Amino acid sequence: MGPGGMVVAPEHVNIGGARFSEWVEAARREQRRREAAYHEGLQPPSLAGRDVVIVDDGIATGWTGRAAVRVLRGMGCGRVALAAPVTPPDTVAALAAECDLLEVPVVAEPFPGVSAFYGDFGDVADATVVRLIQLAAGALSQSE
Q1: Fold of domain 46-115
Q2: How is the chain split into domains, by residue range?
Q3: Is 52 helix (H, G, I), strand (E, B) or coil?
Q4: Which residue intervals of the chain are DSSP H helices?
Q5: Cα separation, 48 vs 35, whole angstroms
Q6: What phi, psi does 70 have (nearest 5°)?
Q7: What is the rounded distance in angstroms from the CA atom of residue 70 to the CA atom of residue 63?
Q8: How many angstroms separate the CA atoms of 135 and 144, rounded?
């Protein structure tokens, strides 16, 4: 799910009829919640024509990365690069076809999952995301 309700769903997932509608509506609710929480009082920058780097903590199936690239392309971005520390080999080709540059230092086989490559793979709290966005936007100083 991207800004403005853009939906990117894996082709191999057969979500039909009402189930797909329910999935889309749940994703839209979560997107609206995150946009409200993460961008309170801030306007997201225009990305039209700008080169963008997406950084992920690791890529398993590649669908989150592909969705991010497609959303950014739909927003009119220039070149889109994707970087992650680890991915399985069968995901590399699909991702490389989607973005302008792909950087993955560790292509692992077997691939037990992204979390297997971390000592601590906990969630990032919304408050942390909000603080980092505000820091990046210059709304906070680093000492706050």
Answers
A1: Rossmann fold (3.40.50)
A2: 1-44, 46-115
A3: strand
A4: 17-38, 63-74, 89-98, 126-136
A5: 19
A6: -65, -40
A7: 10
A8: 9
Both tokens of residue 57?
């903590």
**Do residues 75 and 52 touch, judged by C-beta distance below 8 A?**
no
What span, in angstroms and rounded, lies between the C-alpha atoms of 3 and 22?
18
Q: Do 86 and 18 touch, CB atoms closer than 8 A?
A: no
DSSP state of 141: -
Question: Which 3 state secondary structure label does DSSP give 56?
Answer: coil
Identity of the amino acid at 16: G
Contact 96, 132 (CB under 8 A): no
Chunked into runs of 10 residues, the chain (144 residues) has average pLDDT values of: 62 63 82 84 84 94 89 92 95 92 96 94 91 80 58
- Cβ proximity of 55 and 101 under 8 Å: no
For helices 126-136 and 17-38, the axis angle rounded to 10 degrees is 60
